[in-house]
Amino acid sequence: MTSGVTDRDRAKADRHAAILHEAAALFAERGFSGVSLEDIGGAVGVSGPALYRHFANKQALLGAILVEVSERLLSGGRAVVAERSDPAGRLDALIAFHVEFALRDADVIRVQDRDLASLSDDDRHTVRRLQREYVEVWIGILSAVHRGRDEDDLRVRAHACFGLINSTPHTVRALRAHAAERDVRGILQTMARAALTA
Q1: In sequence order, what are the residues at sequence separation of 6 or more whose Cβ sits closer than 8 angstroms to the Cβ of residue 93?
Q2: Strands, E assignment, 9-144
Q3: Contact call for residues 40 and 22 (beta carbons, < 8 A)
Q4: Backbone angle region of 166, left / alpha / beta, with phi > 0 → left and psi within -120 to 50 → alpha
Q5: Which of 100, 197, 103 is nearest to 157 (CA)?
Q6: pLDDT for 137-191, tens place per residue?
Q7: pTM for this structure?
């Protein structure tokens, strides 16, 4: 039985993913307003106008980047939590998941920090909703680790942890060696756990 996915479908999906990746890198480097569709097309080997077969315009491309990463964070966070039953194990797994995301998708984090206001209203509302739901995943785990603490306390802890983890890859971009990245991963996980359990 075939899956129904053709070589053409796979090639289109690969091209779509390449466009998102290159656009995120360019937006992170130059800002949303400093990048043209021609720049993005050149980075993936297609003409600027050919990008319209994938995205209606540059704003729609930005929306696809930030909505997709928000959906991935939420579904990944929920999956990590579902795999474990003990609160401490869940927290460690969630921290490791988010650290891996921050190291892998540092460009997308920069784009969101700087260019969220450039989204369409619909995409901005979608990103904000998905992010709120992701925070709730963390609060659910933290409430089991810190019994008796109120939700505002737990929310501050979660957001402070995101700040720690999300900002660090920008400061260590020069450390490209795998050993250095492993060191950064371990440091971030240790510091995040210490902050969240303090």
Answers
A1: 80, 81, 83, 84
A2: none
A3: yes
A4: alpha
A5: 197
A6: 999 999 999 999 999 999 999 999 999 999 876 666 555 555 566 788 899 999 9
A7: 0.87
